[in-house]
Write a structure and sequence with these properties.
One of its GO terms (biological process) is lipid catabolic process. The chain is α/β, with parallel strands linked by helices. The protein has 12 helices and 8 strands. Strand 7, helix 9 and strand 8 form a beta-alpha-beta unit.
Length: 305
Protein backbone atom coordinates (compact mmCIF):
# COMPACT_ATOMS: atom_id res chain seq x y z
CA UNK A 1 0.00 0.00 0.00
CA UNK A 2 1.30 3.44 -0.97
CA UNK A 3 0.56 6.13 1.59
CA UNK A 4 0.70 9.83 0.73
CA UNK A 5 0.80 12.52 3.40
CA UNK A 6 -0.84 15.70 2.11
CA UNK A 7 0.03 18.85 4.09
CA UNK A 8 -2.18 21.87 3.47
CA UNK A 9 -1.54 25.60 3.86
CA UNK A 10 -2.51 27.89 6.71
CA UNK A 11 0.22 30.42 7.56
CA UNK A 12 1.29 30.28 11.20
CA UNK A 13 -1.27 27.52 11.77
CA UNK A 14 1.15 25.25 9.91
CA UNK A 15 2.65 24.67 13.35
CA UNK A 16 -0.20 22.27 14.17
CA UNK A 17 1.10 19.87 11.55
CA UNK A 18 4.21 19.18 13.64
CA UNK A 19 1.98 17.99 16.48
CA UNK A 20 -0.29 15.97 14.21
CA UNK A 21 2.65 14.28 12.49
CA UNK A 22 4.18 13.33 15.83
CA UNK A 23 0.95 11.60 16.84
CA UNK A 24 0.64 9.84 13.48
CA UNK A 25 4.23 8.63 13.78
CA UNK A 26 3.57 7.25 17.27
CA UNK A 27 0.69 5.20 15.84
CA UNK A 28 2.85 3.83 13.05
CA UNK A 29 1.33 5.89 10.23
CA UNK A 30 4.21 6.88 7.94
CA UNK A 31 4.30 8.29 4.40
CA UNK A 32 5.77 6.83 1.23
CA UNK A 33 5.54 10.25 -0.38
CA UNK A 34 4.93 13.84 0.73
CA UNK A 35 2.79 16.51 -0.93
CA UNK A 36 2.80 20.04 0.44
CA UNK A 37 1.11 23.36 -0.23
CA UNK A 38 2.12 26.77 1.16
CA UNK A 39 3.01 26.30 4.87
CA UNK A 40 2.52 22.59 4.27
CA UNK A 41 5.14 22.79 1.53
CA UNK A 42 7.67 24.10 4.04
CA UNK A 43 6.87 21.25 6.43
CA UNK A 44 6.87 18.59 3.72
CA UNK A 45 10.16 19.84 2.27
CA UNK A 46 11.80 19.92 5.70
CA UNK A 47 10.82 16.33 6.47
CA UNK A 48 11.56 15.08 2.98
CA UNK A 49 15.00 16.68 3.03
CA UNK A 50 16.00 15.64 6.56
CA UNK A 51 14.47 12.18 6.39
CA UNK A 52 11.09 11.30 7.88
CA UNK A 53 11.50 10.21 11.51
CA UNK A 54 10.32 11.07 15.01
CA UNK A 55 13.54 13.05 15.43
CA UNK A 56 13.02 15.18 12.33
CA UNK A 57 9.40 15.81 13.33
CA UNK A 58 10.59 16.97 16.76
CA UNK A 59 13.15 19.23 15.07
CA UNK A 60 10.41 20.67 12.87
CA UNK A 61 8.37 21.44 15.99
CA UNK A 62 11.39 23.21 17.50
CA UNK A 63 11.69 25.30 14.34
CA UNK A 64 8.05 26.38 14.55
CA UNK A 65 8.36 27.20 18.24
CA UNK A 66 11.13 29.67 17.44
CA UNK A 67 9.44 31.48 14.55
CA UNK A 68 8.20 35.04 14.79
CA UNK A 69 6.01 36.94 12.37
CA UNK A 70 8.93 38.98 11.07
CA UNK A 71 10.61 35.74 9.98
CA UNK A 72 7.78 35.13 7.51
CA UNK A 73 5.63 38.25 7.14
CA UNK A 74 7.93 41.25 7.67
CA UNK A 75 5.62 44.22 7.96
CA UNK A 76 7.20 47.47 6.80
CA UNK A 77 4.81 50.47 7.01
CA UNK A 78 6.59 52.34 4.23
CA UNK A 79 6.50 49.31 1.93
CA UNK A 80 2.81 48.85 2.69
CA UNK A 81 2.05 52.43 1.73
CA UNK A 82 4.06 52.08 -1.47
CA UNK A 83 2.30 48.80 -2.28
CA UNK A 84 -1.13 50.35 -1.91
CA UNK A 85 0.04 53.25 -4.06
CA UNK A 86 1.12 50.84 -6.77
CA UNK A 87 4.84 51.45 -6.27
CA UNK A 88 5.56 47.96 -4.91
CA UNK A 89 4.31 44.63 -6.17
CA UNK A 90 3.73 43.14 -2.73
CA UNK A 91 3.07 44.03 0.89
CA UNK A 92 6.01 42.02 2.25
CA UNK A 93 9.54 41.24 1.20
CA UNK A 94 10.30 37.55 0.73
CA UNK A 95 13.94 37.92 1.84
CA UNK A 96 13.38 36.76 5.46
CA UNK A 97 11.40 33.72 4.31
CA UNK A 98 14.08 32.88 1.75
CA UNK A 99 16.75 33.05 4.47
CA UNK A 100 14.64 30.77 6.65
CA UNK A 101 14.17 28.18 3.90
CA UNK A 102 17.83 28.32 2.84
CA UNK A 103 18.94 27.80 6.44
CA UNK A 104 16.75 24.77 7.15
CA UNK A 105 16.56 22.99 3.80
CA UNK A 106 19.73 20.93 3.27
CA UNK A 107 18.97 19.98 -0.33
CA UNK A 108 19.34 21.93 -3.54
CA UNK A 109 16.98 19.93 -5.73
CA UNK A 110 13.59 18.47 -4.80
CA UNK A 111 14.73 15.24 -6.41
CA UNK A 112 17.40 14.88 -3.72
CA UNK A 113 14.84 14.46 -0.94
CA UNK A 114 14.91 11.20 1.00
CA UNK A 115 11.20 10.68 0.27
CA UNK A 116 9.42 11.53 -2.99
CA UNK A 117 8.45 15.17 -2.52
CA UNK A 118 5.86 17.11 -4.50
CA UNK A 119 5.22 20.83 -4.03
CA UNK A 120 1.96 22.42 -5.23
CA UNK A 121 2.09 25.87 -6.83
CA UNK A 122 -0.06 27.94 -9.17
CA UNK A 123 0.86 29.65 -12.45
CA UNK A 124 -0.17 33.26 -11.82
CA UNK A 125 -0.88 33.93 -15.51
CA UNK A 126 -2.92 30.85 -16.43
CA UNK A 127 -4.22 29.77 -13.02
CA UNK A 128 -2.95 26.30 -13.78
CA UNK A 129 -1.85 24.06 -10.94
CA UNK A 130 1.88 23.33 -11.23
CA UNK A 131 3.28 20.35 -9.34
CA UNK A 132 7.02 20.58 -8.71
CA UNK A 133 8.81 17.30 -8.08
CA UNK A 134 12.28 18.33 -9.22
CA UNK A 135 14.23 21.53 -9.61
CA UNK A 136 15.40 24.12 -7.14
CA UNK A 137 13.98 23.21 -3.72
CA UNK A 138 14.11 26.67 -2.16
CA UNK A 139 12.40 28.30 -5.13
CA UNK A 140 9.68 25.64 -5.12
CA UNK A 141 8.86 26.15 -1.44
CA UNK A 142 8.87 29.93 -1.79
CA UNK A 143 6.60 29.76 -4.84
CA UNK A 144 4.11 27.55 -3.00
CA UNK A 145 4.06 30.04 -0.10
CA UNK A 146 3.78 33.18 -2.24
CA UNK A 147 0.38 34.44 -1.08
CA UNK A 148 -0.96 36.84 -3.74
CA UNK A 149 -0.44 40.52 -2.86
CA UNK A 150 1.51 39.58 0.27
CA UNK A 151 4.49 38.29 -1.76
CA UNK A 152 5.57 38.74 -5.35
CA UNK A 153 5.22 35.77 -7.73
CA UNK A 154 8.31 33.57 -7.81
CA UNK A 155 10.12 32.87 -11.08
CA UNK A 156 10.73 29.12 -11.27
CA UNK A 157 12.32 27.93 -14.51
CA UNK A 158 10.61 30.65 -16.53
CA UNK A 159 7.14 30.42 -14.96
CA UNK A 160 5.74 32.94 -12.50
CA UNK A 161 4.30 30.94 -9.63
CA UNK A 162 2.24 31.78 -6.55
CA UNK A 163 0.70 30.02 -3.55
CA UNK A 164 -0.43 26.50 -4.40
CA UNK A 165 -3.54 27.01 -2.30
CA UNK A 166 -4.97 29.26 -5.02
CA UNK A 167 -5.41 26.24 -7.30
CA UNK A 168 -5.31 23.24 -4.96
CA UNK A 169 -4.91 23.52 -1.21
CA UNK A 170 -4.94 19.91 -0.07
CA UNK A 171 -3.88 18.15 -3.30
CA UNK A 172 -5.78 14.95 -2.53
CA UNK A 173 -6.34 14.59 -6.27
CA UNK A 174 -2.59 14.76 -6.88
CA UNK A 175 -2.03 12.02 -4.31
CA UNK A 176 -4.55 9.85 -6.13
CA UNK A 177 -2.96 10.64 -9.52
CA UNK A 178 0.43 9.60 -8.13
CA UNK A 179 -0.94 6.14 -7.36
CA UNK A 180 -1.57 6.42 -3.64
CA UNK A 181 -3.86 3.84 -2.06
CA UNK A 182 -4.14 5.74 1.21
CA UNK A 183 -4.10 9.52 1.66
CA UNK A 184 -3.49 11.08 5.05
CA UNK A 185 -4.53 14.73 5.04
CA UNK A 186 -2.75 16.88 7.62
CA UNK A 187 -4.69 20.16 7.67
CA UNK A 188 -3.59 23.44 9.22
CA UNK A 189 -7.22 24.41 9.92
CA UNK A 190 -8.55 27.89 10.56
CA UNK A 191 -9.47 30.18 13.44
CA UNK A 192 -13.03 28.94 13.90
CA UNK A 193 -13.60 30.64 17.25
CA UNK A 194 -12.71 34.30 16.82
CA UNK A 195 -14.69 36.76 18.90
CA UNK A 196 -14.27 39.57 16.37
CA UNK A 197 -12.89 40.04 12.86
CA UNK A 198 -9.10 40.27 12.39
CA UNK A 199 -7.91 43.79 13.01
CA UNK A 200 -5.34 44.27 10.23
CA UNK A 201 -5.51 43.84 6.44
CA UNK A 202 -2.83 41.12 6.49
CA UNK A 203 -4.60 39.18 9.24
CA UNK A 204 -7.97 39.58 7.49
CA UNK A 205 -6.53 38.34 4.20
CA UNK A 206 -4.88 35.32 5.82
CA UNK A 207 -8.02 34.44 7.77
CA UNK A 208 -10.20 34.72 4.67
CA UNK A 209 -7.91 32.39 2.76
CA UNK A 210 -7.99 29.77 5.52
CA UNK A 211 -11.81 29.91 5.56
CA UNK A 212 -11.87 29.25 1.83
CA UNK A 213 -9.35 26.44 2.07
CA UNK A 214 -11.30 24.67 4.79
CA UNK A 215 -14.40 24.55 2.62
CA UNK A 216 -12.41 23.28 -0.34
CA UNK A 217 -10.88 20.59 1.84
CA UNK A 218 -14.30 19.25 2.76
CA UNK A 219 -15.41 19.18 -0.88
CA UNK A 220 -12.21 17.57 -2.18
CA UNK A 221 -12.06 14.88 0.47
CA UNK A 222 -15.70 13.99 -0.08
CA UNK A 223 -15.08 13.77 -3.84
CA UNK A 224 -12.28 11.20 -3.50
CA UNK A 225 -13.60 9.33 -0.46
CA UNK A 226 -14.89 6.39 -2.48
CA UNK A 227 -11.74 6.06 -4.60
CA UNK A 228 -9.02 5.69 -1.96
CA UNK A 229 -8.73 5.35 1.79
CA UNK A 230 -8.59 8.85 3.25
CA UNK A 231 -7.65 9.82 6.78
CA UNK A 232 -8.04 13.46 7.81
CA UNK A 233 -6.29 14.42 11.03
CA UNK A 234 -8.71 16.48 13.14
CA UNK A 235 -8.21 20.27 12.88
CA UNK A 236 -7.94 22.10 16.18
CA UNK A 237 -11.39 23.18 17.30
CA UNK A 238 -12.21 25.56 18.87
CA UNK A 239 -9.32 27.74 17.69
CA UNK A 240 -8.93 31.50 18.04
CA UNK A 241 -5.37 31.97 16.71
CA UNK A 242 -5.09 33.92 13.45
CA UNK A 243 -2.95 32.62 10.60
CA UNK A 244 -0.40 35.45 10.94
CA UNK A 245 0.02 35.08 14.72
CA UNK A 246 3.24 33.20 15.46
CA UNK A 247 3.09 33.64 19.22
CA UNK A 248 1.13 30.46 19.99
CA UNK A 249 3.23 27.70 18.43
CA UNK A 250 3.75 25.87 21.72
CA UNK A 251 0.02 25.68 22.35
CA UNK A 252 -0.82 24.73 18.76
CA UNK A 253 1.72 21.92 18.57
CA UNK A 254 0.89 20.47 21.98
CA UNK A 255 -2.87 20.60 21.40
CA UNK A 256 -2.58 19.09 17.93
CA UNK A 257 -0.41 16.28 19.25
CA UNK A 258 -2.81 15.46 22.09
CA UNK A 259 -5.99 15.78 20.01
CA UNK A 260 -4.66 13.68 17.13
CA UNK A 261 -3.33 11.00 19.46
CA UNK A 262 -6.67 10.76 21.29
CA UNK A 263 -8.54 10.70 17.98
CA UNK A 264 -6.39 7.86 16.66
CA UNK A 265 -6.49 5.88 19.90
CA UNK A 266 -10.30 6.04 19.77
CA UNK A 267 -10.21 4.49 16.30
CA UNK A 268 -11.91 7.45 14.65
CA UNK A 269 -9.88 7.05 11.46
CA UNK A 270 -11.89 3.89 10.79
CA UNK A 271 -15.30 5.56 10.97
CA UNK A 272 -17.40 5.80 7.79
CA UNK A 273 -16.16 8.77 5.82
CA UNK A 274 -19.24 10.93 6.37
CA UNK A 275 -18.85 10.79 10.13
CA UNK A 276 -15.09 11.12 9.91
CA UNK A 277 -14.60 14.35 8.03
CA UNK A 278 -17.71 16.00 6.63
CA UNK A 279 -18.09 17.92 9.90
CA UNK A 280 -14.49 18.72 10.71
CA UNK A 281 -15.45 21.42 13.22
CA UNK A 282 -17.76 20.25 15.93
CA UNK A 283 -18.26 23.01 18.50
CA UNK A 284 -21.10 25.47 18.76
CA UNK A 285 -19.70 28.98 18.49
CA UNK A 286 -19.78 30.32 22.00
CA UNK A 287 -19.97 33.97 21.03
CA UNK A 288 -23.38 35.60 20.85
CA UNK A 289 -24.07 38.99 19.35
CA UNK A 290 -21.67 40.49 21.91
CA UNK A 291 -21.03 44.16 22.53
CA UNK A 292 -21.40 46.70 19.77
CA UNK A 293 -17.98 47.09 18.11
CA UNK A 294 -19.17 49.13 15.15
CA UNK A 295 -16.91 51.99 16.19
CA UNK A 296 -13.93 49.82 15.25
CA UNK A 297 -15.34 49.21 11.79
CA UNK A 298 -16.95 52.48 10.62
CA UNK A 299 -19.38 52.47 7.69
CA UNK A 300 -17.72 52.35 4.30
CA UNK A 301 -19.31 55.65 3.31
CA UNK A 302 -17.24 57.41 5.98
CA UNK A 303 -14.05 56.08 4.41
CA UNK A 304 -15.10 56.99 0.89
CA UNK A 305 -16.05 60.53 1.86
Amino acid sequence: MTTAFVLSGGGSLGAVQAGMLAALEEQGLRPDLLIGTSAGALNAAYLGAHGYSSESIADLATLWRGLRRQDVFPVDPLRSVLAFAGKRASLCSMRPLRRLVDKHLPITDLGDAQLPLHIITTDVLSGEEVVLSSGNATTAVLASAAIPAVFRPVDHEGRLLIDGGVSNNTAVGQAVALGSDRVVVVPAGFACDLSEPPGTPLAALAHSITLLLEQRLIVEVAHFADQVEIIVAPPLCPLSVNAVDFGHADELIDRAHADTRSWLEAGNEHLPHQARFLALHHHSHKHGPGPDRSDRFPPLVDEVM
